[in-house]
């Protein structure tokens, strides 16, 4: 169970408040989107612009880290306890990696690189350099890797596979096309990532992926029936905005009916 942008159903997305809550609620993985600032820092922001998730306006790629840190990213959120200033600021990828690695149990971090962006391949290069600095770029095996790199861009996934072949990767998007011997095979992705809507329509995607030796990552799974569907189909990783609730449902599903 992967916390989508942290526990973003209860805390402002991509903030320490959201990630700390997700870890406390037992998430086995956390997911983040990364973009490059004008001065070359990797920050956890989903949109090209800061308008939706902060009190500022403008493009992430045109702002420096210092400018981005001056914005309010969620103290106004109804789920944030007081005081909020230290937990609702901008999070950089290296700060999030530190939080995950320092946690008292193993947690995976799923890093999504956004494309198209003005900095192109530099985003993946910076991500891999940072993972190398944290000792996460060359895991002993995919199963034991603490990091997974994802993208909707096949080119981005290929860049990661070519530079760090032991790192697990997820090719997100129209998986029904990828599993016909197309992009997933070409770029060597170790997993594919359809949306929950796509999986409802094409539940056979799980078996097709498994037949090709690929895992399946599904996003974003917040409803009870969808959680049960993913578990019944054998989805490896489900991304959710509500980690505590989703974990409870998964445990109830595993336990089966009483008596």
TrEMBL record:
Gene Ontology terms for molecular function: phosphoric diester hydrolase activity
Record-linked InterPro entries: GP_PDE_dom, PLC-like_Pdiesterase_TIM-brl
GO biological process terms, semicolon-separated: lipid metabolic process
Entries under PROSITE patterns matching the protein: GP_PDE
Entry protein name: Glycerophosphoryl diester phosphodiesterase family protein
Organism, as annotated: Mycolicibacterium hassiacum (strain DSM 44199 / CIP 105218 / JCM 12690 / 3849) (Mycobacterium hassiacum)
């Amino acid at each position: 169970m992967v916390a989508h942008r942290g526990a973003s159903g209860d805390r402002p997305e991509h903030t320490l408040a959201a990630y700390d809550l997700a870890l406390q609620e037992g998430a086995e993985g956390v997911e983040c989107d990364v973009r490059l600032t004008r001065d070359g820092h990797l920050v956890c922001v989903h949109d090209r612009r800061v308008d939706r998730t902060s009190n500022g306006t403008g493009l992430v790629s045109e702002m420096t880290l210092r400018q981005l840190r001056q914005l309010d990213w969620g103290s106004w959120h109804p789920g944030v306890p007081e005081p909020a200033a230290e937990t609702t600021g901008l999070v950089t990828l290296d700060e999030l990696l530190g939080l995950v690695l320092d946690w008292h149990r193993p947690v995976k971090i799923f890093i999504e690189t956004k494309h198209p962006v003005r900095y192109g391949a530099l985003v993946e290069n910076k991500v891999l350099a940072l993972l190398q600095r944290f000792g996460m770029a060359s895991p002993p095996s995919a199963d034991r890797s603490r990091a997974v790199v994802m993208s909707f861009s096949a080119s981005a996934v290929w860049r990661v596979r070519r530079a760090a072949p032991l790192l697990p990767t997820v090719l997100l998007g129209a998986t029904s096309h990828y599993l016909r011997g197309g992009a997933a095979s070409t770029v060597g992705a170790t997993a594919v990532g359809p949306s929950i809507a796509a999986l409802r329509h094409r539940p056979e995607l799980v078996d097709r992926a498994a037949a090709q030796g690929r895992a399946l990552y599904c996003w974003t799974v917040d409803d009870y029936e969808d959680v049960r569907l993913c578990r019944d189909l054998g989805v490896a990783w489900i991304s959710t905005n509500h980690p505590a609730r989703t974990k409870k449902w998964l445990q109830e599903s595993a336990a089966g009916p009483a008596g």
